Structures are given as structure tokens and as C-alpha cells.
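Can anyone check this?
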Amino acid sequence: MLIFLPKISLRYRIERKINSLKFHIIDFPNRLPALCYHPIQLKITADKNNMHNSIRFKMSGFFFFLMLIIASHISASQNEIKPFVKGSFKQIQQAHNDRPYIIAFWSETCAYCMKELKLFGQLLKKYPQVDVVSISTDPFLNEKTIKQILSSKNLQNIESWGFADNYAERLYFDVDKKWRGELPFTLFFDRNKKMIKHMGVIKEKELVEWLAAQSINK
């Protein structure tokens, strides 16, 4: 009686080896991404996060720097002494059309003007809803001098202009056809856009009443 078990066993083992090898060979491409994907994904994700963080940091720094430039430009614009020429009066009116404001014309040599500017400086802190525009009627008065005068009256942050025409009468006429340069000359524009002209120093009581009236909610 012949027994073929060893041959069957050997063949079986060989086939198993071959099949096992085939399985590993065939499955290797499918298993390779699974083995490698997670480390690669983590590395890519980490790189992206680093890149995004770097971009966010750089963009934040850029916008911060940009805001500083804008803020300094606004601050510089607010303290700038603008040249008052023909047409500037209308320009000021258009710029302040949405709220009450005062335009104060003054001169360096006008003692009453200095008194009125001081009064504005004392009261305007209580009435921030009212703008004050300063206009020096001394043609081409030194900018440093204008700033020093306004600063001494606590008006260093208000909008300021200076006559920039040697023929001052031309500017007088552009503001008011009847004005001949008398000072102090002050224009009050209330919340209803009504203009009141005042020649000479205004009384404190009258000024307080006008300022208070602009603060009343209607």
C-alpha cells in the first residue's frame, strides 16, 4: 500500500508559501499607503499649520504696522496747519455739515482774540459734540507760532487754518462780503445748520447757552 502523505504535505506547504508570498506581493501596494499615509499626513499637516501660523503672524504684524502708519497720518493731519485760501471757507462748511461747529477768526496781535480762544479751550471739553475750527488771519503766520498759541489755550487738537494769501481782503470777501477784517470774528453753526455771526468777544454766558442747546436731544 502506497502512502502519498509526504508529497501532499510538501506540496501543501509549498503552495501555502507561494500563496502567502503572492498575498504579500499583491497586497503590498495596498498596504504601503496605509503604512506611510499617517506619518506623511501628520508631517504635511504640521507643515501647513506652521505655514499658516507664520502667515498669520506676518499678516498680523503687517496690519499692526499699517494701523500705526494710518494712526500717525491721522494724528499728523489733525495737527497740520492748513492754508486758508479762496474757497477754503466753503470747504470747511462742507466738511462739518453733519454737526454743530464754531469757526473762530483771530490774529496774533489781537488781545481780545486770545481771550476768546482761552474761553473756548475752557468750555469745549464739556461739549465734545461741537467742533471748533481755528483760522489765523495773519497771512503766512509761522506754523510753530500758531501751534504754540493754540496749545496755550488748550486747543492744540482742533482743526486749524492760516491765511495763505498776501491780499487778505480777498479772503475776507470770500467769507463775508461785509467783513473788513474786524476781530475777533466768530461764526456759529448750530445743529440745524443755522449760522450766527458774532463780532467781538462773546460773553461766557451766551457761549454756554449756545453750546448747551447743541447738546439737547431732539
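Reply from J.R.: I decoded it. Residues 81-213 form a domain with the Glutaredoxin fold (CATH 3.40.30.10).
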